[in-house]
Design a protein that fits this description.
The chain is an alpha+beta fold. Helices cover 14% and strands 30% of the residues.
Length: 324
Amino acid sequence: MAVKVLKPGLSTTVQDLGRPGFFHLGIPVGGAMDRLALSSANLLVGNDEGAAGLEAVFIGPELEFLAPATIAVTGADMPVLVDGVEQPSWTALEIKAGQVLGFGYLRSGGRIYVAISGGIDVPMVLGSRSTYGIGALGGFKGRPLATDDKLPIGMARPVSTGRMVPEPLRRRPGLTAELRVVPGLYWERLEEEARLSFFEDNWKVASEADRMGYRFKGGRRLTFSGREQPFGAGADPSNIVDSCYPYGSIQVPGGTEPIVLHRDAVSGGGYAMIGTVISADMDLIAQLQPNAPTRFVAIDLAEALQARRDQAALFDRIRNALAP
């Protein structure tokens, strides 16, 4: 079975839940930026949670199905169209051979996820089918989809159509997104006023927002304490001797605009990291559009661990809601 790409949409790539274990070699974990959305879509169509699906940004693809399938679309609020007729999202849908899946204009959010029963059966690379575009690695030929590509689909399990993820379990950002941050790493390098303003100010997502990281603008400049330039570090006080970059860490080159490193970010470099967005909130970043208002909220490690438990409990509720 295969699916033909009639229109690729914008930055549409094959993604699963990533390839952990290679960060020390400079290869990021990668995978779906909104893990809850992809996992939910896979459960709806009877796949394992980590099966490969499609991630599209702002504009959805147009796909012709060459054989029957069950599909589900989750993530951003974007009209789902089958042969031009709108269908519900976060729902298992039956697709007949020859039918075309398309999308309307984006209403809210940033990324949609398309799961197909059987999963997208591209080759495994380092234990994952995820596309790492910077390294031309994995996915469909290591790149975003293009017109006339044919995606191989694996063997599907029997599954009932019409199942849906209940509305309260479809987590979305509020009117102002709140990203919880554990200060640390090089937090002490900030001046006291900058430490306060980082959490007091209203920020907005800048146009530079992709799988590597999201830049935020609109807050006051963050000033770093002066220091004697270390050997091997840049002259600006925001520079350090090269260090590892944790997933979700926040760097502020020149002190002007914070950058939250995301799924495809490099593994290290020479900018001070003032803290880390907790793992439970990284999915939300994937659904933020440019200019989306955002606040950073300081929490401690105990609160971060509780948020991770809450996130796991939310996944469990989704699993239970979709259990056969």
